[in-house]
């Protein structure tokens, strides 16, 4: 299994090869997805909903993220490992540095923070100190209450321009990756064109440099939760095992057949 690095992930964008990412929160799934060739594992704070049963990511703590990062890192076979900084763990610069250091010491290769221009100074400080940063724009679940719920972002011109400006700013500040969640495909495509760093989409169409899904969602585990951008890879008649579903997801990302229009927003 090839060990992914910041350089090899950037090279995927530069060579036009889509980047396949999935969440994992435990060692068993981390081992499986990395053995099957996933480029990036995200220890997402979505674990607050998927593992802990909360209605949002807000209750997730640094202790939770540290524990799950340790579980995943112990079994990862070479995928690039990103860990979410949880709610309010990066409210001030000193908190950001101390908490990011804790997640890196737990085994993360990179930390992910939700937000745009207001984060630039923190992103600069983290990268100056050798901590790679992934930013997250569009629907930022930690601020879902402020956004009026889990809604598609960037549909009006003012909001779309703001997201583009945020994306350019976080790249300039030193971010090495950008997650774009629930934005119109055309906006994600425009941002991907303007940035040198890779973009990873979720509900952002198939013109981003890569895709990420929550593992349990693409396996259809939760029957009550099926947002538009999720495809259940187990529903395919040719898929008979978890391994085959994950492999089918990776292939669909790599050949850009996922997401299609049915799983994207205009
Ligand atoms: O927490 C998470 O799993 C995420 C993805 C949905 C991008 O941030």
Structure notes:
This protein is of the alpha/beta class and about 270 residues long. It has one domain (about 5-265): Alpha-Beta Barrel (TIM Barrel). It has eleven helices and eight strands. The chain has an eight-stranded parallel barrel, surrounded by eight helices. Helix 4 runs parallel beside helix 5 (about 95-105). It is globular. The chain starts with 5 loop residues before the first helix and ends in a 12-residue tail after the last helix. About 50% of the residues are buried.
SSE pattern, N- to C-terminal = HEHEHHEHEHEHHEHEEHH
Number of separate helices:
11
> How many DSSP-defined strands?
8
Bound molecules: 3-methyl-2-oxobutanoic acid
What's the number of structural domains? Answer: 1
Estimate the strand proportion. 5-15%
- Helical fraction equals 25-40%
Assign the CATH architecture: Alpha-Beta Barrel
Would you state the CATH class? Alpha Beta
Provide the CATH topology.
TIM Barrel
The biggest sheet, with number of strands, parallel, antiparallel or mixed sense and barrel status, is:
8 strands, parallel, barrel
Structural class: alpha/beta
Write the layout of secondary structure elements.
Layout: H1 6-14, E1 19-23, H2 27-35, E2 40-43, H3 47-50, H4 62-73, E3 80-84, H5 93-106, E4 110-114, H6 120-128, E5 133-138, H7 144-147, H8 157-173, E6 177-181, H9 185-194, E7 199-202, E8 210-213, H10 215-218, H11 242-254
Parallel strand pairs: 1-2, 1-8, 2-3, 3-4, 4-5, 5-6, 6-7, 7-8
How do you describe this structure in short?
This protein is an alpha/beta fold and 266 residues long. Helices cover 39% and strands 14% of the residues.
């Amino acid at each position: 299994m090839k060990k992914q690095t910041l350089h090899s992930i950037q090279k995927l964008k530069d060579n036009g090869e889509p980047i396949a990412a999935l969440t994992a929160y435990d060692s068993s799934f981390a081992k499986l997805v990395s053995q099957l060739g996933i480029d990036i594992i995200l220890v997402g704070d979505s674990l607050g909903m998927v593992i802990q049963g909360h209605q949002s990511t807000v209750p997730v703590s640094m202790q939770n993220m540290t524990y799950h990062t340790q579980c995943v890192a112990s079994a990862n076979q070479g995928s690039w490992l990103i860990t979410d900084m949880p709610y309010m763990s990066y409210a001030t610069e000193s908190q950001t540095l101390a908490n990011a250091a804790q997640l890196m010491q737990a085994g993360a290769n990179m930390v992910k923070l939700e937000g745009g221009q207001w984060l630039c100074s923190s992103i600069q400080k983290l990268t100056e100190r050798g901590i790679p940063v992934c930013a997250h724009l569009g629907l930022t679940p930690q601020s879902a209450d402020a956004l009026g719920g889990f809604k598609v972002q960037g549909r009006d011109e003012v909001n779309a321009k703001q997201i583009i400006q945020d994306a350019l700013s976080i790249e300039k500040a030193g971010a090495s990756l950008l997650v774009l969640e629930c934005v119109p495909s055309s906006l994600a495509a425009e941002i991907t064109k303007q940035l040198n760093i890779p973009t990873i989409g979720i509900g952002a169409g198939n013109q981003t440099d890569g895709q990420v899904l929550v593992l349990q969602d693409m396996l259809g585990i939760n029957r009550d939760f099926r947002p538009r951008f999720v495809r259940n890879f187990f529903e395919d008649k040719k898929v008979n095992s978890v391994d085959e579903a994950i492999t089918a997801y990776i292939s669909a990302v790599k050949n850009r057949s996922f997401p299609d229009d049915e799983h994207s927003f205009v």
